[in-house]
Amino acid sequence: MRVIVAGHTAVTADEFVELALGTPLELWLGVEGESEMERAAREDAARDILADDPSLVDRASTVAAETVEALAPDLFNVVTLPRVARRVRAGKRAAA
Prior knowledge:
Elements: E1 3-5, E2 8-10, H1 13-21, H2 25-29, H3 36-52, H4 56-71
Antiparallel strand pairs: 1-2
């Protein structure tokens, strides 16, 4: 199956995320073995991008959630537990 985002074909999952976000994943995740100076430069660039496009955080969160939901739907199978009323013992009331 081919996925086309903004006229570009994404072949791998990483390419799809990069096309959806408009930035390479390495910018946010870093690369193994990067120096402190490379890390600082990468983080500075990321801060500039977020300052220019504050909605990127919401888009990235949406892409991440949709990816998890598509690839590992069991992670979202959450069962709500019933709330149990707590009894307050005499003399042990919470301060208001």
